[in-house]
User: Which sequence fits this backbone?
């Protein structure tokens, strides 16, 4: 039974991962370390330390990982700041259904608090949520389960009674490690067989979650 729902933000609620992907590719190419699609997938929902480690693994110790990360974030933030926040299909319908049923909703995002607050406020859906845990409020972010454990505690629901809605591979791994019910709604990356095995469900739209409540 689902007694609480934990939402990822980018790529799940908001159609922003494609923007991040565009600038990961663009900045890395300009700096001479072009990223492939499978590399970009590892960046979604991950901490800076995790991202730096991946760049070193892929390109060696001399890779300017901080320059790539900073450049991607700067260009992505500038793009999002100058455009409306694109809401994913079915989000409003799901949030309304949760409110009607009295099921608490909380956000767990690897994004820093200041930037997450801005996106949430501009999206117009902030009032539907009972709280948010951000990437700069945990010691380890996805694929570590800490952020989901804190989100479940924030709404007072045991992790095993929480559905975690995610679009990223890192997020599904973290949700499974937290003992929650991982539900993947793929965005830019489709689940591998290994990731699919961790999921309670793989859906195509957010409002499909309503039938599971």
Assistant:
């Amino acid at each position: 039974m689902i007694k609480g729902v934990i939402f990822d933000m980018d790529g799940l609620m908001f159609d922003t991962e494609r923007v991040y992907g565009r600038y990961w590719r663009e900045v890395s190419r300009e700096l001479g370390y072009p990223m492939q699609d499978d590399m970009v997938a590892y960046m979604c929902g991950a901490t800076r330390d995790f991202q730096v480690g991946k760049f070193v693994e892929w390109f060696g110790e001399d890779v300017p990982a901080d320059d790539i990360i900073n450049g991607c974030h700067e260009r992505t933030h500038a793009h999002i700041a100058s455009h409306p926040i694109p809401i994913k299909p079915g989000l409003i319908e799901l949030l309304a259904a949760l409110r009607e049923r009295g099921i608490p909703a909380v956000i767990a995002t690897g994004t820093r608090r200041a930037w997450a607050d801005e996106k949430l406020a501009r999206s117009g859906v902030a009032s539907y949520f009972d709280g948010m845990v951000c990437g700069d409020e945990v010691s380890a972010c996805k694929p570590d389960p800490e952020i989901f454990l804190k989100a479940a505690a924030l709404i007072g629901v045991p992790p095993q009674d929480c559905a975690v809605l995610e679009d990223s591979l890192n997020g599904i791994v973290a949700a499974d490690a937290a003992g929650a019910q991982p539900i993947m709604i793929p965005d830019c990356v489709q689940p591998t067989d290994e990731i699919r095995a961790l999921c309670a469900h793989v859906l195509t739209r957010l409002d499909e979650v309503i039938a599971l409540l």
